[in-house]
Amino acid sequence: MSSTEPRRSIATVCLSGTLEDKLTAAARAGFDGVEIFENDLVASSWPAKEIGEHCAELGLSIDLYQPFRDFEAVPPDVLARNLRRAERKFDVMDQLGADTMLVCSSVSPDAVDDDDLAAEQLHLLAERAAARGIRIAYEALAWGRFVNTYEHSWRIVRRAAHPALGLCLDSFHILSRGSDPAAIRTIPGEKLFFLQLADAPRLQMDVLQWSRHHRLFPGQGAFDLTAFTRNVLAAGYRGPLSLEVFNDVFRQADPGPAAVDAMRSLLSLQETLGVADLPPAPELAGHAFVELAVDAEAEVRLTDALRGLGFAETGQHRSKPVRLWQQGDARILLNGSPAAAGASVGAIAVESADPVASARRAQRLLAPILPRSHRAGEADLSAVAAPDGTSVFFCRTGAGAADSWLGDFTQLPAAGAGAGVTGIDHLALTQPFDHFDEAALFYRAVLGLEPEPVTEFAAPFGLVRSRTVADRSGRVRVALESALLRRGDWAPGVREPQRIALTTEDALASARRMRELGAPLLEIPGNYYDDLDARLAPDPELVAALRQHSVLYDRDETGELLHFFTVVLGGRVFFEVVQRIGGYAGDGAVNSPVRMAAHRRQRAAALG
Amino acid sequence: MSSTEPRRSIATVCLSGTLEDKLTAAARAGFDGVEIFENDLVASSWPAKEIGEHCAELGLSIDLYQPFRDFEAVPPDVLARNLRRAERKFDVMDQLGADTMLVCSSVSPDAVDDDDLAAEQLHLLAERAAARGIRIAYEALAWGRFVNTYEHSWRIVRRAAHPALGLCLDSFHILSRGSDPAAIRTIPGEKLFFLQLADAPRLQMDVLQWSRHHRLFPGQGAFDLTAFTRNVLAAGYRGPLSLEVFNDVFRQADPGPAAVDAMRSLLSLQETLGVADLPPAPELAGHAFVELAVDAEAEVRLTDALRGLGFAETGQHRSKPVRLWQQGDARILLNGSPAAAGASVGAIAVESADPVASARRAQRLLAPILPRSHRAGEADLSAVAAPDGTSVFFCRTGAGAADSWLGDFTQLPAAGAGAGVTGIDHLALTQPFDHFDEAALFYRAVLGLEPEPVTEFAAPFGLVRSRTVADRSGRVRVALESALLRRGDWAPGVREPQRIALTTEDALASARRMRELGAPLLEIPGNYYDDLDARLAPDPELVAALRQHSVLYDRDETGELLHFFTVVLGGRVFFEVVQRIGGYAGDGAVNSPVRMAAHRRQRAAALG
């Protein structure tokens, strides 16, 4: 961490597990500090003093004890009870070695709408706190009974006028209500005691439920956290950037990767703020190759399929059991591996303007660097692991022989028939349920791809959500998919399918040719074409040709899509062939349920 | 089905799978008809004519083809396109043998706010439909662009004045907007072409998202479907009661049980409407026993634990390897079973005023009746299977020797120490993820228990939701629990825990006695008591005693709860001992996270 970078903290409530699990995960991901969420402490078997010592050993400061609720603007008897409660918590903080306590604006039926009373009582609390060496950070909850905007909480803090009383700003509470964060700049920096950061998708729902279930790490949602945080830093805030994210998935996911995801979100935010020294993401120029790990049976299956799709075997790795199949700029590696079960995408490779810089950036963003065995004279490819375990290679296929990975392959005489494929259009990789948002952030931060909005569709065996990440030119494009709810025992669809979409300039001609070559293409039922005719009424001759060749169709304002599929090969991998006409930007998701039902039939037929 | 009962239908969209899966499940659950959801048909490999024939073979009529969207109040060129689209769908309906088409109120940007134009164009559509022997059922979507209340859709239908044009009423669209269903009675019955029923929890969110993700079967949510449906029947509606439920969980659950759940919801609704001849639920008078299936190791563990809790072994089954342990009215059976893995609740038994009638009602409500092997002279206990597979017995412990299940046990000399347990307070059974709402409906419909509201709390490894079902007197009480999201690989908590809560009149004395007897009680950390003191400030002497005995505490407006726990025994079962003071009505859920973290520590310690 450079000396000008802010400190980075995380609230324990962001992570799953016991307090012990959470602290370990936060320390391993490189956080400087934590907010201790009261419930985590209460359930812990470690006395507060031991927790404090343990944090110190892990190199974590305890930046905030939180939350303290329903304190201010109450009748005298309630105030007396609340002060007693606060003193007990000061005892705990003393043991912990924590010097700042978060006090949320009241939601209590005991409270009254009286800013003067609130200020007076908060002053009293701050006085008690100051006597213990503690500061009070007052925060307006978005659903606070009377105080629910930061402007209002600031008026009260200003009126209370005690040096041990300041504000806690929480991006969710402020941005969820549509408040303008610009006025934060008018608050003196020394009164900004704490900053909590959370992103969120834009949802039309009760703000309390939205906050408690759907927060995300910065960069995963729809809020402009860069602009928000810039205002806070411009006001002179010098405390940590601290994450407080309540999220149903993160609450039950492995805290190790979740903490890494959290740290990556802060590093990425710092980059957009200009307070991080990350190497910029080099420009990407397309998909270099896709490598499939195959067992012996799947290798035969894939070899036949690739031949049927018009690919030629053009290379054999000099030292590994890897074969290169090529058609146009589409390159598929088959890596025969005794450890493989069927076929799956083991690695994807992107063309980088500077592979070494890409890898350096990835490492700074906590992507695990993969060790590569390569012999003298072979290319030293840089690779990192994506959240789903897929290897991501950075390479320059067009570089001189010394640098290009192609130099590692002996060239075979090309014998492919050719079927019009010119390259790789995109990949679609189903993500493990707990890693969907993490994956989008990974590709955005590490590779510099832009995430498109999350979409959902109803598939035969449950809802599916999808988010495509792509470079600005659309030459690198990865669709991340996941079930909306983790699937259970009854889910006869393909488990975690992976799709390799190839580009053609004439889908009908490619389909005809591939069928002649024996490609295992997927049959689409007639009902689909009847519905297509009813819905979009394409030219009847086109519908007839689509029907004949089992090619699907979609249209948007700017263009058309023709696409078709192979059956599922080796358990989870299949190919798509895509023709884009005009500016059609999507991936034909409207046709996915039909394709999925057809794959289900194919599997059922194969099993029966 | 009696001749006065309405027909029962289900929309294919309610169920997971391909159309083939859905139709099979609907027929097996006893539905009379289906609504064919267009997307299901489009993805099916069966031509429409074959689908129609298949439905006929299954005994299912096709009561509705749905939905047809964005038809009315459009410019002439769009109208021409929409009529063409409709004719294509009439072709499909002709093949299917379906005579009613659902037309949803428009959400199209092409539409204009002109009731006269809408009526005129719907008249035209009805004319075309009538020529094909088809009727049009017009439905106001809650988010329709101009038409979003049933009163508005009825004004348009009345103005259109065509015999082949009527209304489709959907309870969700009407009740979600808070419309008063009473005015439905003013609509002539012959203009009510179709009735779709869906329940839902009360959620403050965008109505479209609420509808698409969170609908439930009648009786599972917060809507008053009895009053709603009564209005529709009073208007003279004679069509089917048809379910149209979009639900994220049902969309991916096994369609077999889901269809049974759906049918049970309709049978139960008919009962409250007075149009079903179900035998009423006999009164229940408490928990008769809980039977644990145990392997050899778990049997030793449970035997020791029961002894430590003050239970006495009071009986041995005459023909089965089942031992009866008793203390007060709490009875636990240990069923040594080679098929068991550890310990789990295999059966629960309730005291029924009429066990035979209870079983007859359960059977009518599609509860699987369990075959019982019993010898001559042994009680013929009636039992059914709950959705999680637990057997539910109906019995009369206090009946004469001939009838009571106790007569099947040889009496042993009671040697239990006694520790103040007087009976079973409640059970808490974790439900399989896909069966949570089904379970609540099962206990409500089959046993006549009342469901309390769903609650949620943050547990160490993810959110947990809970819903208690209880008889009016609270003597039979089952807390159904489930993870809010299905857990994945990282979830080191107890998998699907089951809790048996025993009653005491003095928790501190019971805890002291049980500790003397060697019961494996769960240790609660000191932080809990510090927080309890800060939060509720109970009498310091009480806090000290609670702390000493690891007894937890809660308080509400009407009373107090003192409770403590054993460790987890045999993998997933543990005991709780509960003292209720005054009218305390809950189950101490506020303390669950602390208890769960303590159980996690216990397991970790046992493993380490």
Helix and strand topology:
2 copies of one chain form a homodimer.
Chain A: E1 8-11, H1 19-28, E2 33-37, H2 38-42, H3 48-58, E3 61-68, H4 76-96, E4 100-104, H5 115-131, E5 135-139, H6 150-160, E6 165-170, H7 171-175, E7 192-197, H8 207-214, H9 225-234, E8 241-243, H10 255-273, E9 284-294, H11 296-308, E10 312-317, E11 322-327, E12 330-336, E13 343-352, H12 355-364, E14 382-385, E15 391-395, E16 409-411, E17 421-430, H13 436-447, E18 450-451, E19 455-459, E20 462-470, E21 477-483, E22 498-504, H14 507-516, H15 526-536, H16 540-549, E23 552-555, E24 559-565, E25 573-582, H17 592-607
Parallel strand pairs in A: 1-2, 1-8, 2-3, 3-4, 4-5, 5-6, 6-7, 7-8, 9-12, 13-15, 17-21, 22-25
Antiparallel strand pairs in A: 9-13, 10-11, 10-16, 11-12, 14-15, 17-22, 18-20, 19-20, 20-21, 23-24, 24-25
Helix pairs in contact in A: 1-10, 3-4, 4-5, 5-6, 9-10, 10-13, 15-16
Number of H- or I-type helical stretches of chain A: 17
CATH topology of the largest domain in chain A: TIM Barrel
CATH architecture call of the largest domain in chain A? Alpha-Beta Barrel
Helix residue percentage of chain A: 25-40%
Tally the structural domains of chain A: 3
Strand content of chain A: 25-35%
Number of strands of chain A: 25
Largest binding interface between chains: A-B, 69 and 69 residues
Secondary structure class of chain A reads alpha/beta
Silhouette of chain A? elongated
Oligomerization? homodimer
Overall pLDDT level of chain A:
95
The biggest beta sheet of chain A is recorded as: 9 strands, mixed
Radius of gyration of chain A: 28 Å
Instruction: Give start-end ranges of low-pLDDT stretches of chain A.
Output: none
CATH-level-4 superfamily name of the largest domain in chain A: Divalent-metal-dependent TIM barrel enzymes
